[in-house]
UniProtKB/TrEMBL annotation:
Taxonomy, superkingdom: Bacteria
GO molecular function, one term: uridine nucleosidase activity
Any one annotated GO CC term: cytosol
Pfam families named among the record's database cross-references: IU_nuc_hydro
Gene3D superfamilies assigned: Ribonucleoside hydrolase-like
Keywords: Glycosidase, Hydrolase
Domain spans labelled Inosine/uridine-preferring nucleoside hydrolase: 4-312
Originating species: Anaerofilum hominis
Protein name: Nucleoside hydrolase
GO terms, biological process: purine nucleoside catabolic process
């Protein structure tokens, strides 16, 4: 089994990623770390605990950073963030990420140490390399490397949901996770570990349709039902705000990273590239790929496409394994 640590800002698609990782027989989920992003750190931590509890999983949760790195140090650099616009479904307002996931409040609690401290303690002691799957802003991972860079020896791969080449979702040039903490992203992209970037180009291609949601629900499991509910909500918001090439479909970004670890062919057209992050003005949070491949060191694998049929089949297999009905 491949050991992984998930880093999340739960978040509706993070919730699907967590459930997928918990249910996978190929992955051993060692811990889940929360980070501020989609919502503040209290909410992303509570939502993460709710999902773990819903599945009855025995996985420790560590609370992570509450602010992006440089923006914490220099508050005047906090960008003006437009709140995501709620849309109406059956007369009710829906957003891509509700403040709190609509499942029972967490009774289980997070661990005593913070996420960056956990990374350092855990990786120093690890006997074999571990994969980090970071599907929120990269603040915790950068902070852990700042605390102790030698943990790199214990990292097999860092799989990042973030960025975009032809697609953006937060500004004309940026995807949300990278835009939220661009300095952390740049540090992680250049840390020297194997970094695989799963950008919007891949996650929009590997989308989930209303028919796929019906398949999830037909499994009759807790995870299948909850995933169907979350994805349907995401489809409503996508249809209104950023329709995909496939009609009535949604990107479930974060879960694509977990699916990739189960079957790498979920990602298509993966190229070894040089990738930097823009910091200023129009480029803030942009993933900038260098086409001058012959002059620059390649630091990341970047997926330009995804396979939605494989992705949905993997999710169905995972949700079918859920013992909870
Ligand atoms: C990413 O941003 C978040 O809103 C999602 O959870 C995903 O990780 C997509 O841009
Ligand atoms: Ca996320």
């Amino acid at each position: 089994k491949r050991k992984i640590i998930l880093d999340v800002d739960t978040g509706s698609d993070d919730a699907v990623a967590i459930m997928s990782a918990v249910l996978s027989p190929d992955l051993q989920l060692e811990a889940v770390c929360s980070v501020a992003g989609n919502k503040d750190i209290d909410k992303t931590t509570e939502n993460t605990l709710r999902v773990i509890q819903l599945l009855g999983a025995d996985v420790p949760v560590y609370r992570g950073c509450r602010e992006p790195l440089v923006k914490f140090l220099c508050p005047d650099r906090l960008p003006k963030r437009g709140a995501s616009k709620p849309v109406l479904k059956d007369g009710k307002e829906v957003q891509m990420h509700a403040d709190y996931l609509d499942i029972p409040a967490a009774v289980i609690r997070e661990q005593a140490i913070s996420a960056p401290e956990f990374y350092v303690q855990y990786l120093r002691a690890a006997k074999e390399p571990v994969t980090i799957v970071a599907v929120g802003p990269l603040t915790n991972v950068a902070m852990a490397l700042l605390l102790d860079n030698s943990i790199l020896n214990k990292i097999e791969e860092i799989v990042v949901m973030g960025g975009g080449y032809n697609i953006t979702n937060t500004s004309p040039s940026a995807e949300f996770n990278i835009w939220y903490d661009p300095e952390a992203a740049q540090r992680v992209f250049h840390c020297g570990a194997k970094v695989t970037i799963v950008p919007l180009d891949a996650t929009h291609a590997a989308c989930v349709t209303l028919e796929d949601c019906a398949r999830f629900r037909a499994l009759g499991t807790v995870s299948g039902n909850f995933a169907a509910e979350l994805c349907e909500q995401r489809i409503t918001v996508h249809d209104d705000s950023q329709p995909l090439a496939v009609p009535h479909a949604a990107a479930v970004h974060d879960a694509v990273c977990v699916a990739y670890l189960i079957d790498p062919s979920v990602l298509k057209d993966v190229r070894h590239v040089h990738c930097d992050v823009g910091f200023r003005d129009f480029c803030e949070g942009q993933t900038i790929l260098d086409p001058r491949y012959y002059t620059e060191e390649k630091n990341c694998y970047f997926a330009f496409d995804g396979d939605r049929f494989k992705f949905v089949d993997i999710l169905c297999d995972l949700f079918a394994r859920d013992k909870k009905a």
